Please model this.
Amino acid sequence: MSRPGLDATDIRILAAVQQHGQLSKARLAELVNLSPTPCWARLTRLREAGLIRGYRADIALERIANVTQVVVTVSLAQHRKVDFDRFESHIAALPEITECIATGGGMDYVLKVITQSLTAFQALMESLLEADLGIQRYMTYIVTRQVKAAQPDLKALTRAPAHPA
Model:
């Protein structure tokens, strides 16, 4: 189901900038089949509504540097708001942790960590444990290769669900 105020053209604009990043007014209008001025006005409205957080390049990191990528699952000893807030605030300040999601179930968080080496990763983990963040246990998974990394299909996610006949 679409969010209120978003129509099919808005979704096409969001999908285009999601796939291509920043585009010229003319190119974006061409991709979404709309004239440039109203297309740009819609893009501005979508930005101002906070629906576009930013534009990023997909960098071929493996061609720039040898890095160690690790997925870490973390379980906290206590589950109070103050415990989650302390952990999340600390994690947000660490550039080596490129993703952190809170999860329900057996683990509280899943982290994606990128460091220069396994030694640097281990030093990071030791600093997390020494920071008194309430980490009860963690599991590490060394990334051997990335099989898939993609953005979700906005058109499919905002399509109205089919109703049984």
Remarks:
- The two ends are 19 Å apart (CA to CA).
- The chain is about 40% helix and 20% strand.
